[in-house]
Specification:
heterodimer, A: about 170 residues, Beta Polymerase, domain 2, six-stranded mixed beta sheet, three-stranded mixed beta sheet, globular, B: about 45 residues, mainly alpha
């Protein structure tokens, strides 16, 4: 039985709207989202993601992070999100027809709760930063810095300055 | 060629080894309200 914690797209949208009152671009393209275990994201998925991108020559850290001049914060956060979606799709690959014949997925959720968001550092007017956004078990936003592989805290100014969220 | 590169860069002997390192099964939170068998109640006649 699929006992995975899942959130509907509409509910996720409400949470994002209340968390980021000034968001201008709120993009949600799926019907529902399975909620990833945050401890697993940090301790297992992120190190595996770093292994994965090493194929593209990112094996050496630059200034203690994995960014390059032509591959920076938004590239890193978008690719981590894409990687998690790959894992979700690979682990839940049975189609409706196959499921009708008795095959089972871990979850039939159409996507996974990994998003990207853009905000301004400390609410500054210029410059922005991209990170990943997840949901905690109690459906609160959890911010992940993919340059360092850690969950971070955003202050109220930074939350208010968020202008883009994409799940 | 690819195999040699994998061995040189990451010490991975086979593609299967690389796949094992990178293709993980996601861990999701469980919904405590799902999967609980509700007790059957008799219909009132």
């Amino acid at each position: 039985m699929d006992n995975t914690l899942i959130i509907k797209g509409g509910e996720l949208k409400k949470i994002m709207n209340s968390s980021f009152p000034n968001v201008k671009h709120l993009i949600m393209t799926d019907r529902d989202y399975a909620i990833l275990d945050l401890d697993w994201v940090k301790k297992h998925a992120y190190p595996a993601f770093i292994e994965w991108i090493q194929v593209f020559g990112f094996q050496r850290k630059i200034r203690s992070s994995y960014w390059k001049t032509n591959w920076d914060c938004e590239d890193l956060s978008e690719s981590f999100k894409a990687y998690l979606r790959f894992l979700h799709a690979a682990a839940n690959s049975h189609t409706l027809t196959e499921r009708m014949k008795g095959e089972k997925n871990i979850t039939n959720a159409t996507s996974v709760s990994a998003g990207t968001m853009f905000y301004r550092n400390n609410g500054a007017k210029s410059g922005g930063h991209a990170i990943n956004i997840f949901l905690s078990k109690d459906m609160k936003p959890a911010y992940f810095e993919p340059e360092a592989g850690v969950f971070i805290h955003l202050n109220p100014k930074e939350e208010e300055s968020t202008w883009y969220v994409n799940f | 060629m690819v195999r040699k590169l994998l061995i040189k860069l990451f010490g991975i002997e086979t593609f299967e080894g690389y796949k094992k390192k990178c293709v993980l099964t996601p861990k999701y939170y469980k919904d405590p309200e799902k999967g609980i068998k509700k007790p059957l109640t008799k219909k009132k006649v």
